[in-house]
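Quick illustration, no need to memorize.
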Amino acid sequence: MEGGFSLKTATVGILGLGLMGGSLALSLKGKCKRLLGFDSHPPTLELALSKGIIDHALPHPQPLIIPEGGSQRERGVDILILATPVPSIIQTINQLPSIHPPCIVMDIGSTKRDILEAMSQLPAGYDPIGGHPICGRETLGLQNADANLYQGAPFVITPLPRTTRHALRITKQIISAIGADLIEMTAADHDRILAFTSHLPFLLASSLARSTLHATRSTPLIGPGFRSTSRLAGTPAHMMLGILKSNRDNMLDALHGMQAQLAELEAALSSEDFAKLESLLNEARTTYQSLTGN
């Protein structure tokens, strides 16, 4: 299978044609032999077909994955990309049948440890690898998909011990084709870091939005600072709940760290120690500049 096989000659299937999966399909269009889309929402499949985003549509990829010992006709999917919420990714992995010939399976879920644990139990015919592009928007759905969403974005891969050089090579071709920047790390490191850089900001934005719940006269005075800081609160809760559950231990560490930082700011303000407060804010500014390059 490895000799001469490349993304250009592959049939790629994407399960989940929301913002992330739809944007991935748009970005891969014309860069692989055939692009198949799978989604349980019929109007989404109809929209994807009507816009020419995919070549073929089905509710689920299972009919195009030949069970081991089944027909020897050409298998429908060479690379299966799972682009649904984390709990759904794990459920799909657990339901995949034994197959022959092999198929690369990659996910783009926002946490990695639970997904890789499920992938490690896949039958031998699968060649799995974890992935997570660090991009997105709070406005979801195929109607918001963008072919340039992945351009210049970090794309983390988390190989398993069983991941082959072939799967790594094809995954790197996919990341290059969509214009993302590859970063390789362990699932544990990924989940620990993303708790602070991605999942905690969602909870902070949600807390900020809730803090104005009873400030009925605040709406006319909402400016760009509030809008940019609370933007992630617009993400539907059902999209984040699986992420928070699967990364619960790291999220608690991140929340405890944030609470300590807020307590230090509160103490300086309460005691009118404005020199301390200025020092804390300057330290925060320096850290921000170091992290973001701004």
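Residues 7-185 form a domain with the Rossmann fold fold (CATH 3.40.50.720).
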